Amino acid sequence: MVHINNEDVNNNEVNRSRRFHFGILALQGAFQEHIHMLQNIPQVSSAIPIRKVEQLATIDALIIPGGESTTMALIAERSGLMEPLREFVRSGKPTWGTCAGMILLANEANKTKKGGQSLIGGLDITVNRNQFGSQIDSFESALRIENVTTSSDHLFPAVFIRAPIISSINSPDIEVLARLEHNVGETDTSAIVAVKQDNLLATAFHPELTNDDRLHKYFVQLTQDYYYTGKKEK
Ligand SMILES: NC(=O)CC[C@H](N)C(=O)O
Description:
Active site: 99 (nucleophile), 206 (charge relay system), 208 (charge relay system)
Bound molecules: glutamine
Protein name: glutaminase
Distance between the termini: 37 Å
Structural class: alpha/beta
Helix content: 10-25%
Largest sheet: 7 strands, mixed
Keywords: Glutamine amidotransferase, Hydrolase, Lyase, Pyridoxal phosphate
EC number: 3.5.1.2
GO biological process, one term: pyridoxal phosphate biosynthetic process
């Protein structure tokens, strides 16, 4: 093994060669696809399924996948993961929620089952679950995404499956990254479908179900920036 003496090398360069450990919450839903997508990105050292509390300490960043947010929350409660997940998010470490994962990261959710549902929280947004109803169960839409698609680029192929939308932004710290490009049923182009707040990212759709890894690369970049430029504790 090559030993690098930190004092001989510019500290920054040493840090910038670092690769990162990603965890994907694997209680239910589309976690395997996220793992595959991350594994092909050079800066990713590992992408592991997270099922136990102690695994959270081994990762630099977390993805909460799509699936069924009520089921995921129930399993998380039962396996004692809910509070440690909240703690992970509170620590400021990069976390990305897709679809059901976005619902879980929201501080508030509408159209929840009777009695509400428990959330991890962290993002100052309100989400509307199942925004598109059963008539339009799933659809694909090409999106412009801030920081991810450039004007010369092709748009992002976003797959929406019983998707939520962000119905309200409750803090000036929320950056809107994407809105619907076309009306879908009753939902018009004002509907917000991707946001960022510090190191928290949320998308209403499923980027892991496409061949387009731009959002995964963006999340890896966010993780790099977080560990290179100092942690922004909240
Ligand atoms: N594709 C998805 O993740 C669907 C989310 C699901 N409708 C929920 O409320 O949790």
